[in-house]
């Protein structure tokens, strides 16, 4: 999608969203090249689209950057399912072993030393089924770990929350809705435990400050003084986590934002 072509019509290429909480017009360029225009309730559509049109070159540059990132992204890790695979779990590389038995449906055992998939001889030859089974087991573990951390950290912050919702977001590790629904990426279970804790602390702090102001970051630091170490870990290693059991076949990147300032 090239927004600088002659005859460009913003309404044709842009997903528009009216926001009751946004203070400024915001343009979001997403990893797939989609452009979203966030319009505060108090700003007219005419003003919003004038701002959009004035940022055409910025949008084009960001789309080119995402194209290059997709081309350079590490290829998905293809599990061989031959007993030689190793899978990250809570920051540690674990052997992924297969145990053939008389069992109707594949099941997964996760322990401190290995990940074991039990399956029938027929299922042993179905890597799609085995991958789906492993993903489901990791999602369940992510939910259990997340709920335990959420309960503990919410009590320390004296806040409540809903959820968690566990999903496979393309460009987010976590989010907190205005109503307090916490959504988390299941892939956090692959990272060191403090990475999941950082994301959870971050999202719960939004129950006090639904922004990224200095007051917000001060609150995060009070709850987790070394948060910046784990935030940096996620920035450096996040793409690697997306290589296992990929949702779309490539590692996504976070969206780019442009705020109007008014």
Structure report:
The chain has 262 residues and is α/β, with parallel strands linked by helices. It folds into two domains: 10-73, no CATH class; 86-241, Zincin-like (2-Layer Sandwich). Helices cover 40% and strands 21% of the residues. The protein contains eight helices and eleven strands. It has a four-stranded mixed sheet with strand order 1-3-2-11. The chain has a four-stranded mixed sheet with strand order 4-5-7-6. A three-stranded mixed sheet has the order 8-10-9, covered by helices on one side. Strand 6 (107-110) and strand 7 (115-119) form a beta hairpin. The longest helix is centred in the middle third of the chain and has 31 residues, at 127-157. The two termini are 27 Å apart. The model is unreliable at 1-12 and 248-254 (pLDDT under 50).
Write a brief caption for the model:
The chain is of the alpha/beta class. It has eight helices and eleven strands.
Note the run of SSEs as H and E: HEEEHHEEEEHHEEEHHHE
Total helical elements: 8
What would you say the CATH architecture of the largest domain is?
2-Layer Sandwich
Cα Rg: 21 Å
Unreliable spans are: 1-12, 248-254
């Amino acid at each position: 999608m090239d927004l600088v072509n002659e005859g460009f019509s913003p309404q044709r290429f842009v997903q528009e969203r009216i926001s009751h909480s946004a203070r400024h017009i915001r343009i979001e360029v997403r990893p797939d090249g989609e452009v979203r225009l966030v319009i505060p309730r108090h700003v007219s559509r005419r003003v919003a689209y004038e701002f959009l049109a004035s940022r055409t070159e910025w949008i084009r540059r960001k789309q080119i950057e995402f194209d290059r990132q997709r081309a350079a992204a590490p290829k998905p890790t293809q599990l061989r399912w031959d007993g030689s695979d190793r899978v990250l779990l809570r920051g540690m590389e674990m052997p992924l072993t297969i145990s053939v038995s008389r069992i109707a449906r594949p099941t997964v055992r996760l322990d401190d030393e290995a990940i074991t998939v039990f399956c029938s001889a027929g299922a042993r030859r179905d890597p799609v089924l085995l991958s789906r089974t492993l993903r489901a087991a990791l999602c369940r573990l992510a939910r259990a770990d997340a709920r335990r951390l959420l309960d503990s950290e919410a009590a320390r912050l004296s806040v409540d929350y809903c959820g968690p919702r566990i999903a496979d977001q393309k460009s987010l590790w976590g989010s907190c809705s205005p109503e307090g629904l916490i959504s988390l990426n299941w892939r956090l279970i692959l990272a060191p435990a403090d990475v999941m804790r950082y994301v959870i602390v971050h999202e719960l702090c939004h129950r006090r400050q639904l922004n990224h102001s200095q007051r917000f970051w001060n609150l995060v630091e009070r709850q987790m003084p070394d948060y910046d170490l784990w935030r940096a870990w996620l920035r450096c290693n996040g793409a690697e986590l997306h290589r296992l059991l990929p949702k779309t076949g490539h590692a996504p990147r976070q969206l780019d934002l442009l705020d109007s300032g008014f």
